[in-house]
Design a protein that fits this description.
Structural class of chain A: alpha/beta
Helix content of chain A: 25-40%
CATH architecture of chain C: Orthogonal Bundle
Distance between the termini of chain C: 48 Å
Strand content of chain A: 25-35%
Number of strands of chain C: 0
Oligomer: heterotrimer
Helix content of chain C: over 70%
Chains: A alpha/beta (262), B mainly alpha (218), C mainly alpha (240)
Number of helices of chain A: 9
CATH topology of chain C: MetI-like fold
Shape of chain A: globular
Structural class of chain C: mainly alpha
Number of strands of chain A: 12
Largest sheet of chain C: none
Largest sheet of chain A: 6 strands, mixed
CATH superfamily of chain C: MetI-like
CATH class of chain C: Mainly Alpha
Order of helices and strands of chain A: EEEHEEEEHEHHHEHEHEEHH
Number of helices of chain C: 9
């Protein structure tokens, strides 16, 4: 594994009106790693993802993407915030799939995938269309590309949102609770999709409640509680022998067949 | 010149009396318009081709031309073909026709939101057409279009002010008469405006009460 | 009674002048109304009760009183405040203010209808705020504006007829002049009616075209049985 992690987070702090949402988060994600971010609701998982894309500016701490500072940089002891343009330039490297997807309803599925490539990466329409077609085909959306988002099923919409992020050729994909807005019968389909994506070597951070995904697909599990990552290790180890009692209690609560469920 | 509130108050008794004219006309027009719109809706659903062509032209005409011109047509043109109406009658007829067209268009939209299964069920029970309309469709339809209907009634109330243009002595014309004697048009017009606001406020409040009562009954 | 359109021939220049003034006033009032409406809509979006209340009261007053009274209030109110303007300018201002109350609601509704994550999802892929507005936000707002704006603009053209009451020499005013000169009410009003009808038809057509260009998403029609259609539809055959 290369020495430079794809994502490196150091001492991230975010407060909302005095309430601390992130309380010094440290996280390194290596190339090709799949990290499941779990934890009780309100623990700061979604805030962390929003800070990682700079949609929310952290009050303190540093984010590094492929060795390059993102959002603010440090030269010696001087910390300077990056200009908006610099932030925008880095953003395509981080693909974010929103919990609510936020597809653009006035554009067809394929145009949702093409437009950011034209505007942000300045690709030619021909090139962008080719890339979008290839992605849609991989995701099984070829026959849906001219449809508008409102006429697609929940699972199809999710795949369009993933295609939109992948088209920017990101180094890292972030997923915010990808299964929470879906009907239960679609959960398996999405988990299979994430597994397929992981198999291509994509670096991923997935906020999830699906313990099955965390256990079977993720290389690592990071457990968050009260704005901190309190346990971070190989998935199998965290699942079976968590070192923090809070993690053990949480896993008991959400794992079917565990003593907490009976 | 400064705004004389005392003068505004002194004109209020006469204006209030005149406002009763607007109120009375508005009630008559609203009732005629609702009945007319219902009849028109049922007529259109019968799908008699020539009738529907005529109706479509009338709708386009009413929606495409100013209400004031329609009032003039009733007031100036009908006498020329031998129908001599009083200004009041001509005005009431014009606004009622205009309003019934707009309500009928709303009813058209409302009908399309009614679950087709209900008609099938009613037909399966072999209810007569009349009963289906009276007991199944119209009550639901009116419930659905009530907010738009209330809005349309406020438009009718406002429309009655236009009748001052064809010599009906309503609030506006009374205000003009008062101000032509006193040279204080602004205060009297504010008084007239307040009276229209008051009437429409009542219409809206009654409508809201009706809506919440219907909502409770489901 | 004989219908004789030839008596209108000497009055054609008058009709043309009236039509032109009606168009001019409607266009100017459209822009004035939209400009004021957008400002009001933005003010109403300030998350504080005072601006919201101020806008609501403004809207309620202008919607609650007849337009003809708005016209007279502006007509007598401006001199009252020491401002003297030609009648047609006064009329344009009145029509613009009247329309602004409606456009404010139309604009506000279009902005509120936007789902909240749209701007963020555009920013997250790397678009600048301006690009996000241009590619994601503006097209959605514009599309939401077209259908209600069509209606309101048609209403404005029609309401402009009321300005004849303050001696604005618009189409309606000319119809009264011609009627007074010829004593031929049928011909006079028929001509003016047809001109209004044509104007509103053209505007409606133009808006429908722009709506198609902006791309409208419509739900598919649900097929109905002939039996159901005999109660619920107006078409000869049930929609399929």
């Amino acid at each position: 594994m290369s020495a430079t992690p794809v994502l490196s987070v150091a001492g991230l702090v975010k407060r909302f009106r005095g309430v601390t949402a992130l309380d010094g988060v440290y996280l390194d994600v290596g190339k090709g790693e799949v990290v499941a971010l779990i934890g009780p609701s309100g623990c700061g998982k979604s805030t962390l993802l929003r800070c990682l894309t700079w949609l929310e500016q952290p009050d303190d701490g540093f984010i590094t993407i492929e060795g390059k500072a993102f959002g603010r940089e440090r030269t010696g002891a001087v910390v300077t915030p990056q200009r908006r343009r610099q932030v925008d330039l880095m953003r395509p490297r981080i693909g974010l799939v929103f919990q609510q997807l936020n597809l653009w309803p006035h554009l067809t599925a394929i145009e949702n995938v093409i437009r950011p490539q034209l505007v942000v990466l300045r690709r030619s329409r021909a090139e962008a269309t080719e890339r979008a077609r290839a992605l849609m085909a991989n995701l099984g959306l070829s026959d849906r590309s001219e449809r508008y988002p409102h006429s697609l099923s929940g699972g199809q919409r999710q795949r369009v949102a993933i295609a939109r992020a992948l088209a920017m050729d990101p180094a890292l994909m972030l997923f915010d609770e990808p299964t929470s807005a879906l009907d239960p019968e679609l959960v398996g389909e999405v988990l299979a999709l994430l597994r397929q994506l992981a198999a291509t070597g994509m670096t991923m951070v997935v906020v999830t409640h699906e313990i099955a995904f965390a256990a079977n697909v993720a290389d690592r599990i990071a457990f968050m509680d009260q704005g901190r990552i309190i346990e971070d290790g190989p998935a199998a180890k965290v699942m079976t022998r968590p070192s923090d009692p809070r993690v053990a209690r949480f896993l008991d609560l959400i794992t079917p067949g565990s003593p907490g469920h009976r | 010149m400064s705004f004389q509130f005392a003068y505004l108050l002194s004109t209020m008794p006469r204006l209030c009396a005149a406002a009763l004219v607007n109120l009375r006309l508005a009630v008559v027009i609203a009732l005629l318009a609702i009945v007319g719109a219902t009849a028109l809706t049922i007529l259109r659903v019968m799908k008699i081709a020539p009738v529907n062509v005529v109706v479509a032209v009338v709708i386009s005409f009413i929606r495409g031309t100013p209400l004031l011109i329609q009032i003039f047509l009733f007031y100036y043109v009908l006498p020329a073909i031998g129908l001599d109406l009083s200004p009041e009658t001509a005005g009431v007829a014009a606004i009622a026709l205009n309003s019934s067209i707009f309500i009928a268009e709303t009813m058209r939209g409302g009908l399309q939101t009614i679950d087709p299964g209900q008609v099938e069920a009613a037909c399966a029970l072999s209810l007569s057409r009349r009963v289906i309309w009276q007991r199944v469709l119209l009550p639901q339809l009116f419930r659905r279009i009530l907010p738009v209907l209330v809005n349309e009634i406020t438009i009718v109330v406002k429309g009655t002010a236009l009748l001052s243009m064809i010599t009906v002595v309503d609030v506006l014309r009374t205000a003009q008469q008062i101000s032509s004697a006193s040279y204080r048009p602004f205060e009297t017009l504010v008084g007239a405006a307040l009276l229209f606001l008051a009437i429409n406020l009542v219409v809206i409040l009654v409508g809201m009460r009706g809506e919440s009562r219907l909502a409770v009954r489901g | 009674m004989v219908f004789d359109p030839s008596i209108l021939i000497p009055y054609l220049p008058l009709l043309a002048a009236g039509t032109w003034l009606t168009v001019k006033i409607s266009v100017m009032a459209f822009f004035l109304g939209y400009a004021v409406g957008i400002v009001l809509a933005l003010v109403a979006l300030i998350p504080h009760w005072v601006p919201r209340l101020v806008v609501s009261v403004y809207v309620a007053i202008l919607r609650g009183i007849p337009f003809i009274i708005v016209v007279f209030l502006v007509y007598y109110g401006l001199p009252f405040a020491g401002v003297r303007l030609p009648a047609y300018v006064t009329g344009t201002v009145a029509l613009g203010l009247f329309a602004s109350a409606y456009y404010a609601e139309i604009v506000r509704a279009a902005i509120v209808a936007l789902s909240p994550g749209q701007f963020e999802s555009a920013r997250a892929v790397g678009m600048s705020p301006l690009q996000a507005m241009r590619h994601v936000i503006a097209p959605q707002i514009l599309r939401a504006l077209v259908p209600p704006s069509t209606n309101m603009t048609l209403t404005m053209i029609k309401e402009s007829s009321v300005l004849s009451s303050i001696t604005v020499a618009d189409l309606t005013y000319q119809s009264l002049v011609i009627q007074g000169n010829t004593f031929a009410p049928f011909e006079s009003f028929a001509a003016v009616t047809l001109i209004y009808w044509a104007m509103t038809a053209i505007v409606a057509w133009a808006f429908a075209r722009s709506e198609r260009r902006l791309g409208r998403i419509e739900a598919e029609n649900v097929g109905r049985s002939a039996l159901v259609a005999s109660f619920l539809s107006f078409d000869r055959r049930p929609a399929s």
